[in-house]
Amino acid sequence: MNAFNLINQTWSRAFLILIISLLAVLFSIKNNQSQVLIEQQQEKDSINQQSQETMSVSAIRIPANGSQGKAALIFVHGLGDSGQGWSWLPQLIAQSKLITTPINYVFPNAPEIPITINNGYRMPAWFDIYELGNPNAKQDIEGFFKSCDILKNLVKQQIEEFKIPPEKIIIGGFSQGAAISLATLATMETKIGGCVALSGFCALRKEVESKLSSANLDTPIFQGHGTADPVINYQYGKKTSEFFKELGFKNLDFQTYPGVQHSASDEELAAVIKFIKDVLEK
Known about the structure:
- By secondary structure, the protein is of the alpha/beta class.
- It folds into 2 domains: 1-50; 54-280, 3-Layer(aba) Sandwich (Rossmann fold).
- Helices cover 44% and strands 17% of the residues.
- It has 7 helices and 9 strands; from the N terminus they run H-E-E-H-E-E-E-H-E-H-E-H-E-H-E-H.
- Strands 1-3-2-6-7-8-9 form a 7-stranded mixed sheet, with helices on both faces. Strands 4-5 form a two-stranded antiparallel sheet.
- Helix 3 (141-160) crosses helix 4.
């Protein structure tokens, strides 16, 4: 066998190995995507069964790594986003190595609805917005509380289906998701472990107050807001924290992040992880 043939055979074997490896990777990705789709559909079906009167949603669900979940974090995204947009949070929490409790993570996807400020363009949202950043603007009361019911159903699912103790469940969200989380905490009858509200607000003060439950008045709340937020003004967020304290919420911690816009900074995320640890491992 001459040198040319030897090189040619060696190259052919290497090329075949490369093709097999690529196919294996593609198969793995496809399997993972299929599994995510299956989990999303299962989540949607389960919520549908629990409540025929509220909107149904799919969700990205990431079970506790390597063991049965002992706690749950349900985190609700903001306008135009999806559950996938926050699905990196479990990895960040794992990398911190601060929390040892096995956590079930749920990142629900908002339905696509027409948004008035976007000329009726349909996009993922938990409720319609008629005017941005104005607490006195017209509000989508029905859509808002339907989304609160969705979050309550997700909490109920963790308790009944996954046997998570209520005091080990944390709800939270960003922007619209924070607004939904705060109102859900204020109006639910089940006492849970905690609530995280990032760049949040409460435009339905009268309605929330009329539905107020005393179950979570001493439940820890972490609220964070950037001073340079151009979407939800910092003062709007701060007044929301003052409103919830006026309602009787005793353990609300409002943290200010100078220069941060409508996003979560590294410092804020570190504070969120510490809050989760304090709630779950106190």
